[in-house]
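The pair is set out directly below:
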Amino acid sequence: MDLALFDFDGTITDGDGFLPFIHLAVSRARALAGTLWLSPLIAGHRAGWVSSSRMRERIAWVAFRGRPRAALAALGERYAADVLEGRVRREASQRIAWHQARGDRVLVVSASLDCYLAPWCRARGLELICSELEVREGVCTGRYRGGDCSGPEKARRVLERCEIGSYRQVFAYGDTSEDRELLALAQRRFFRWRELAPGSDISTSLRPSRDSLPRGGQREPPPRKTQ
């Protein structure tokens, strides 16, 4: 058996799923107030001074603090079925099916939220490691339980969940610098649906944005290697 590790936003789907869910889940008044309150961080993020990880955590605090968990779970179920399913890349769907047909263990490892990723993964029979909203007495605190699942935290959680050495081979799929440590766990590494040569780094592939990736897939499920 092999192990397959998939990033979600921009790898399985055609782009970000976090902010569209925020826009769906938050009232206009709360969104406007939150934008004003977060404006210094937003400016810092655009300038490269504030990390995406910190930005996500602050947005989640503004959006979900005091919200009933049950209401967010119901909204996440609808979002997974009505929105995310239509944004899945064909090559990702084919590749996941290829791994499952081989009997591989397949995990989605993402900084996105459990309230919509859990139902999506459950419908596809996939395991999930992701950012989780903290809940107390059925109400979201606005904080993450265990922090943002990105960068080194992705790799740490995989190693906590899986005995890497017990698999014949590890495959990993990502599309941004936040997936660097996840990809480093694997012998077969795919970045923006191109296989990286052994010993190479993702830095040379970071120039195009994730949204510049073509949609659609290949007839052959295994992605192509770079020359």
About this structure: Strands lie at 3-6, 105-113, 127-131, 133-136, 139-144, 170-174, 188-191, 194-195. The helical segments are 18-25, 28-46, 52-64, 69-82, 90-101, 114-124, 152-161, 180-183. Residues 11 and 174 are 6 Å apart (CA to CA). The two ends are 28 Å apart (CA to CA).
